[in-house]
Amino acid sequence: MPLKILYIHGFGSTGNSQTVAGLQKILGNEATILAPQFSNDLSTVAQIEQNIAEAKKYKNEFHPNVVIGSSFGGFIATFLNGSPRILINPCLRPSECLHNFSPNMSKEDIELLKALETSHDIDGEMRYEMYGLFGLQDELFSYLNLFKKQYGESKTYTMPCGHRIDEENIKNHLLPILSEIKKIWKV
Question: How far apart are CA 167 and CA 182, in angstroms?
Fold first, then answer.
């Protein structure tokens, strides 16, 4: 039975990203990847909450074995409890950097976003479900240390790249995490 993956793209990306194409090419018939398009208009918290709601809807309809969230998609994936999640270079604190990419966000929305960032408790179940994969030369931002603090060192992985993951890093760093999840979660 093929692995079912829900992939959540980052800001400025699409469901047809190079990461999705590379992952599908490498996994072939071993996986089915659902990679919907989410809004890249992140100028309001209402739109961000809409993206989270849509991701939850896809998760409930598709029933993935694994959720992969990249960059801002990693932030969205933190709200999808109940499945193992791999966050690739996640933007865990978008209130700190989103203004660089979405300069029209109001001060009120930035404050609402800060509240959203800390709105869910990080409990033992969430720590068990979460895996982080970080490029050591990420040119945009790095929440590596925050991820380690929140989810533990044993779920934190690194790779020798920048913000975007290429096929070599998919093979050498993402696939081993997927293999670990398949063993532990028996998927």
Answer: 20
